[in-house]
């Protein structure tokens, strides 16, 4: 499995792989000792199959609420109605005054 | 009085969108040198990749649960990272894209760490927004570009400029007020279309976009008429890009004033 990840990293960080021919990609997969099913998934650009083979499912990737609900303790959160909670939200930044 | 800074520290870093393509050397060193790395990424294969970079990699995925408020999930993620910071560890929060763009958890974690006297830093990464500009060939400086979280866009009246681009994030859960779902459906997206129809014709062409997460993958770029959006297949990682629907409108009064200055 780790050689598959290493191969993907190698493909990801070098521009030469953008327009590589199928033959050259097949050769590189063989040289990297990538097993048959993984090799087919990569050659076919079959992301879903690769995820199955690596026993991965689509992760949840939401990291922001559209509307924040209040904490049980009733603490206010920054961002609601466009208000920043306090100066700790801006510890490194001073906005220039227009006056 | 002891002015020695607390020993624990926090770095929230962005690894970009595509495995192997966007990770900076500096971000990699933050991950490798951390005592513990918490990861929240957009592809399980990327999580496998990160596991090779540090001996103590902990996924934040288990905190998500359908039916549980995402605000509770987010607070638990912050607390998980801060618990280790308070224990004196160098903690790295590893997030897909840019850790400060449409990302509540890293901002809150850094704010909390600093308020408790710990050193905390945000290291930028290549965001989905950056990939969108490249993949769709948009220069935000050409016509202007507005960004909103889709549900927030629906829940509050916003002043939209239809002569600029409008980008709506998290359209997969557009209109969800419960914060407990991982998807909303046709009915919710119909409401979104109705809101957009205040500013755009229904036959206006829009783009459903998703950045590539694996190097051999292509981004999703699906063009469709706005009115077709409710029936479109929309996933967790999809974004809606709406091109300008009106020409730029000249401000003759300001132009005259500026001309008089020459």
UniProtKB/TrEMBL annotation, chain A:
Annotated region described as Disordered, given as residue ranges: 66-85
Composition-biased stretches (Acidic residues): 66-78
Name recorded for this polypeptide: Uncharacterized protein
UniProtKB/TrEMBL annotation, chain B:
UniProt xrefs under InterPro entries: 4pyrrol_Mease (IPR000878), 4pyrrol_Methylase_sf (IPR035996), 4pyrrole_Mease_sub1 (IPR014777)
One Pfam family per UniProt: TP_methylase
Domain Tetrapyrrole methylase: 10-218
Segment forming the signal sequence: none
Superkingdom of the source species: Bacteria
TM region(s), chain numbering: none
Cross-referenced Gene3D superfamilies: Cobalt-precorrin-4 Transmethylase, Domain 1 (3.40.1010.10)
Protein name: Tetrapyrrole methylase domain-containing protein
């Amino acid at each position: 499995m780790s050689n598959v990840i290493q191969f993907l990293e190698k493909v990801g960080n070098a521009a030469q792989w953008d327009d590589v021919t199928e033959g050259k990609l097949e050769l590189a997969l063989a040289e990297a000792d990538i097993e048959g099913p993984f090799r087919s998934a990569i050659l076919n650009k079959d992301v879903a199959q690769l995820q199955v083979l690596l026993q991965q499912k689509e992760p949840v990737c939401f990291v922001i609420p559209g509307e924040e609900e209040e904490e049980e303790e009733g603490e206010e959160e920054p961002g609601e109605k466009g208000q920043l909670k306090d100066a700790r939200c801006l510890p490194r930044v001073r906005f220039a005054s227009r006056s | 009085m002891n002015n020695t800074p607390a020993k624990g520290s926090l770095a929230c870093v962005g690894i970009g969108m595509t495995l192997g393509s966007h990770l900076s050397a500096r971000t990699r060193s933050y991950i490798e040198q951390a005592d513990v790395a918490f990861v929240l990424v957009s592809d399980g294969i990327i999580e496998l990749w990160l596991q090779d970079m540090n001996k103590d990699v902990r996924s934040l995925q288990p905190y998500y649960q359908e039916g549980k408020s995402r605000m509770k999930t987010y607070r638990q993620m912050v607390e998980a990272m801060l618990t280790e910071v308070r224990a004196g560890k160098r903690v790295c929060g590893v997030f897909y894209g840019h850790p400060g763009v449409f990302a509540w958890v890293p901002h809150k974690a850094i704010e909390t760490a600093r308020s408790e006297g710990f050193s905390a830093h945000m290291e930028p990464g290549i965001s989905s927004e950056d990939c969108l500009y490249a993949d769709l060939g948009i220069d935000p400086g050409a016509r202007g570009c507005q960004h909103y979280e889709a549900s927030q866009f629906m829940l509050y009246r916003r002043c939209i400029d239809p002569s600029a681009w409008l980008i709506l994030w998290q359209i997969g859960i557009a209109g969800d007020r419960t914060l407990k779902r991982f998807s909303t459906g046709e009915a919710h997206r119909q409401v979104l279309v109705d809101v957009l129809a205040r500013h755009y014709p229904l036959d206006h062409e829009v783009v459903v976009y998703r950045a590539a997460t694996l190097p051999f993958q292509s981004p999703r770029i699906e063009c469709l008429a706005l009115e077709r959006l409710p029936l479109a297949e929309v996933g967790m990682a999809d974004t809606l890009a709406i091109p300008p629907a009106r020409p730029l409108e000249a401000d003759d009064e300001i132009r005259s004033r500026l001309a008089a200055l020459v």
